[in-house]
Design a protein that fits this description.
By secondary structure, this protein is an alpha/beta fold. It has 6 helices and 11 strands. It has a single domain, classed as Spore Coat Polysaccharide Biosynthesis Protein SpsA, Chain A, CATH 3.90.550.10. Helix 2 crosses helix 4. It binds cytidine-5'-triphosphate and magnesium ion.
Length: about 230
């Protein structure tokens, strides 16, 4: 039986967050942000192991105590210049690690999506465990979409019909994902599914909800704090 392995790329700098500290380490509900996604993934009975990919010059990780995740967690200092490079380097490290096979499922999850729940994770795994290709959590676009000209004036309204916002985890088999990522221009893509699509395949969209948003700008951090606090007091 193929197993389910999580891979968290966490080698970015968080430039849009405008903070000296990479955003995955910013304090969120009393922990560094990456702790929350790690906690959910390590808690899941489906997930066999969790790999974290850090920048080669990361000095923050070692400042915290991660021993509560020790039975599942492996850390690799092999991040690259782009997210896709970090994921591909992580997959290569995973393969040389020996215990992960090319038919095992890899769930790539952004360190910057701290509000992922066990329920969303289960929905993804249940929907895709028997799938030929794999897929991703996503939500249908809710807002009306405007196309702008160079003066920021509206040129027209785009139909939001059939448009989805991609989230993570994105779940593909190790062999397929490695092959797809090694063929694309890594600077031209911002998620894993794009590489699979470039191979001519169609990843499946599994409906999620807006709580699994990505922390990109400072106000997202405040929002994530509210979401996690509310869950703690339930
Ligand atoms: N990431 C990575 N390696 C990179 C760039 C990004 O592992 N070279 C990771 C980030 O750490 C994050 C995830 O990919 O967990 C999603 O990327 P994003 O939200 O864009 O994070 P950053 O690239 O760090 O932020 P920004 O684009 O604002 O600089
Ligand atoms: Mg980025």
């Amino acid at each position: 039986m193929p197993r389910f392995i999580a891979l968290i790329p966490a080698a970015g700098t968080g430039s849009r967050m405008n903070n000296e500290l990479p955003k995955q380490y910013l304090s969120l509900a009393g922990k560094p942000m990456i702790y929350h996604a790690l906690h959910t993934l390590c808690l899941s009975s489906h997930i066999f192991r969790v790999f974290v990919v850090l920048a080669p010059d990361d000095h923050e990780w070692s400042r915290y105590d991660w021993s509560s995740f020790a039975d599942k967690l492996t850390v690799k200092y092999c991040g690259g210049a782009t997210r896709a490079d970090s994921v591909l380097n992580g997959l290569k490290a995973m393969q040389t690690d020996g215990s992960i096979g090319k038919d095992d499922w890899i769930l790539v999850h952004d360190a910057a999506r701290p509000c992922l729940t066990i329920f969303q994770l289960d929905q993804l795994i249940d929907a895709l465990a028997l799938d030929e290709i794999g897929g991703l959590l996503a939500i249908p676009v809710a807002d009306t979409l405007k196309r702008a000209d160079s003066n920021q004036c509206v040129m027209g309204t785009e139909s939001r019909n059939s448009l989805w916002q991609a989230q993570t985890p994105q779940m593909f088999r190790l062999g397929l994902l490695m092959d797809a990522l090694s063929k694309v221009d890594s600077a031209a893509i911002t998620d894993d599914a794009s590489a699979i699509e470039a191979s001519g395949l169609r990843p499946r969209l599994v409906q999620s909800d807006a709580y699994n948003f990505k922390v990109t700008y400072p106000q997202d951090l405040a929002l994530a704090e509210l979401v996690l606090q509310k869950r703690e007091t339930k």
